[in-house]
């Protein structure tokens, strides 16, 4: 069996503390469900562009409109619970695609 490389994930919120922690926990659960070995980093929204250089994907709890060098997805639904099933599905698809290429 081929050893999988780790997927490096950045989860960002306004302060880099509160909702990013909730979102990071949900993303970790999603990674565990689909068998992805992940390293999850957290940051605030103003640090995204700088930190995106060193990760494979960025998840945000707020809207982020800057162009990033890696895929990104807003995961506000993981915090609010509104539309959570759909965003979990999108996260699984995106993470699976990224894991195939790392």
UniProtKB/TrEMBL annotation:
<dbReference type="InterPro" id="IPR013011">
    <property type="entry name" value="PTS_EIIB_2"/>
</dbReference>
<keyword id="KW-0808">Transferase</keyword>
<feature type="domain" description="PTS EIIB type-2">
    <location>
        <begin position="7"/>
        <end position="99"/>
    </location>
</feature>
<dbReference type="InterPro" id="IPR036095">
    <property type="entry name" value="PTS_EIIB-like_sf"/>
</dbReference>
<dbReference type="GO" id="GO:0009401">
    <property type="term" value="P:phosphoenolpyruvate-dependent sugar phosphotransferase system"/>
</dbReference>
<dbReference type="GO" id="GO:0008982">
    <property type="term" value="F:protein-N(PI)-phosphohistidine-sugar phosphotransferase activity"/>
</dbReference>
<keyword id="KW-0732">Signal</keyword>
<feature type="signal peptide">
    <location>
        <begin position="1"/>
        <end position="23"/>
    </location>
</feature>
<dbReference type="Pfam" id="PF02302">
    <property type="entry name" value="PTS_IIB"/>
</dbReference>
<protein>
    <submittedName>
        <fullName>PTS galactitol transporter subunit IIB</fullName>
    </submittedName>
</protein>
<dbReference type="InterPro" id="IPR003501">
    <property type="entry name" value="PTS_EIIB_2/3"/>
</dbReference>
């Amino acid at each position: 069996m081929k050893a999988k490389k780790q997927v490096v994930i950045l989860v960002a919120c306004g302060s880099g503390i509160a909702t990013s922690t909730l979102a990071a926990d949900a993303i970790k659960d999603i990674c565990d469900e689909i068998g992805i070995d992940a390293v999850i980093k957290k940051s605030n929204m103003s640090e995204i562009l700088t930190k995106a250089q060193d990760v494979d994907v960025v998840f945000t709890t707020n809207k982020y409109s800057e162009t990033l060098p890696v895929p990104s997805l807003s995961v506000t639904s993981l915090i609010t619970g509104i539309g959570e099933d759909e965003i979990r599905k999108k996260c699984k698809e995106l993470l699976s695609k990224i894991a195939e290429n790392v």
